[in-house]
Design a protein that fits this description.
alpha/beta, Quinone Oxidoreductase, Chain A, domain 1, Rossmann fold, 2 domains
Length: 317
Amino acid sequence: MRAVQITEFGGPEVVQVREVPEPVPSAGQILIDVARCGVNFSDTLLRENAYIAAATLPLIPGGEVVGRAPDGRRLAAMIPNGGYAERAVIPQDTAFAVPDGIDDVEAVALLAQGLTAWWLVNRTADVQPGDSVVVHAAAGGVGSLAVQLAKLRGAGRIIATAGTPQKRDLALELGADAAVDPATEDLAAALSEANDGRQVDVVMEMTGGRVTDQSLDALAPFGRLAFYGMASLIEPSKVSPRTLQRRSATVAGFWLMHAFAHPAVLHKAYAELATKVMAGDLRVVHGGDHPMSEVRRVHDELRNRRTTGKLVIDPAR
């Protein structure tokens, strides 16, 4: 079968389409024909062996897929790797049934991004009615969904950040009340100004460095910062206990892999997200449906933040 395989760590040039043996399912696994595979920022880190979990070569990247099982069921699942391929094995107990009203891009977008956004809003940050919420990278896969889910949960004011005017306009279309350029020199002041001069209750953050530090400065007493990624690998963050105490602030980290210890919650979350999409209450931003043969370009655009919404690759092309 055709698949993307990495045999050495490095830049986009190490990502190559090859002929590889078809995977063989073990007990508790299902072999599916992959219709689409999601592409995530974490894939570019994995390519460099810079992700949270260390990688072992050779490696077929891709942690989220949607496709058909031999019995015809349409399933979506997250897997450790192996998704950039024509066929993949998925775990039976954490495979999500995909309703007919959900297309392939939506089915994949509701996995890593959708479940992360759901957990951030409902659990980690615990957004309450009336809370002011900052969503960084609000035009991205997680951010675009988090803006909408926070609004549906009753957030009082949502402030989005995004790096271009087009991305900020998209965040406003999705329900944000204000949009800020994260490159603003005094970001803390800009966030407070966007919140009618008040400090904010919640920040959802995945950048790191200066953005994290200034987001903490923008928090109101008892504010919560939910940290779910680190796009800026070269900028260290300076989170001190004294800073947290001065604001009675909470900083929480979240990695979706830990949530798979709670499969019942994830199945409930996926079904809830799918229902909202079919009802028209939640919009998945399609970021591009690309042939697998163009995976190098997709990685380059994603890493350099030239994308919006959910990106997928089609193994058949």
